[in-house]
Amino acid sequence: MSNPPSRRAILSLYHSTLRTSKSFSSYNFRNYFIRRAKDTFRAIKSESDPARIQNLYSEATRELAVLRRSAIVNQLYGGWKLAIEDQKTEMTRADT
């Protein structure tokens, strides 16, 4: 049985997963995968069994590989931006 991953390795995987999730061009996919990553790593953080932590870590590593491939495809075939994404600042009387 191998040792559980270090805290640094888990944080590195978490940041890589978030970075990849933010690279989706589609708003809905991007926000879904960010929420999913946070939930996954909260589960890892709350776990105390080393074997279960190792299992969750290896599963998250496999999911990151799939997420990276999916992000590339989404960037290639991404659609239009949604109105919710286009957040321009509006000028008010005080700004003029």
Automatic annotation (TrEMBL):
InterPro entries, per the entry: Complex1_LYR_dom, Complex1_LYR_LYRM4, ISC_assembly_LYR
Cellular component GO terms held in the UniProt record: L-cysteine desulfurase complex; mitochondrion
Any Pfam family hit: Complex1_LYR
GO biological process: iron-sulfur cluster assembly
Domain spans labelled Complex 1 LYR protein: 8-65
Xref: CDD domains: Complex1_LYR_LYRM4
Family under the similarity heading: Belongs to the complex I LYR family.
Protein name in UniProt: Complex 1 LYR protein domain-containing protein
Organism taxonomic ancestry: Eukaryota, Fungi, Dikarya, Basidiomycota, Agaricomycotina
